[in-house]
Amino acid sequence: MASVMLNDEEGDLESRMALTAAVMADKSRSRMLCALMDGRAWTATELSAVADVSASTASAHLARLCEQRFVVALAQGRHRYFHLAGTEIAELLERLMGVAWATSTPRKITTPLSLRHARTCYDHLAGEVAVMLFDTLVSRQWLTSDGETLTKLGQEMLTEMGIVLAVGSSRRKFSCGCLDWSERRYHPGGVLGATLLRWFSEQKWIKTQSGSRHVTFTPLGIRKLQTEFGIKVVR
């Protein structure tokens, strides 16, 4: 009897895994999910334009995404906005992007240069600058080479800079190395990555644009990245 129950549980898990994979198997839904990786809420009309489908088709896709808990809908006045259900979904999508790049036939990267340089990836920084930041944290021994652990020295130095680190305050991984899908190398992810992006914004080191994942570094940010982290950012 116990064996039968175990098989039933395994079968249920396999079915759920298949459903989860099916949600991302559709190209239009994948486009919508990638757009939502900027961390903002989008309307159905905006997402239909991104996916290049009709409004009715977009609604059907969004209903499926909500049903499978990939996306959450919020009502604001006469409009409904959609955003990713949480960091776990964002991290799943980001890792899938890395796997997709790693398993595809090598080809020339066509990502726009501005996005390759610096962009948001849900709630943390990605692109060339983020990869350089990861490398710097590791070389200074503030972060372990796999990105999984912020060292005691790293905690002390970041705290000294004024970066408030909420260690152990979330069920989400505090730190992890996320494979950057355009650079094919790690950038800081988890709570640490989100904290750094938020702090950069609060310090006015960066600017973001509504509806775009592109990140622009301010003159102050360019100077500070050089002096604080030894990272030279080209305008």
From TrEMBL:
Transmembrane segments: none annotated. It comes from the Bacteria. Signal peptide: none annotated. Residues 9-104 form the HTH arsR-type domain. It holds the Pfam family HTH_5. SUPFAM superfamilies: Winged helix' DNA-binding domain. This is ArsR family transcriptional regulator. It comes from Citrobacter murliniae.
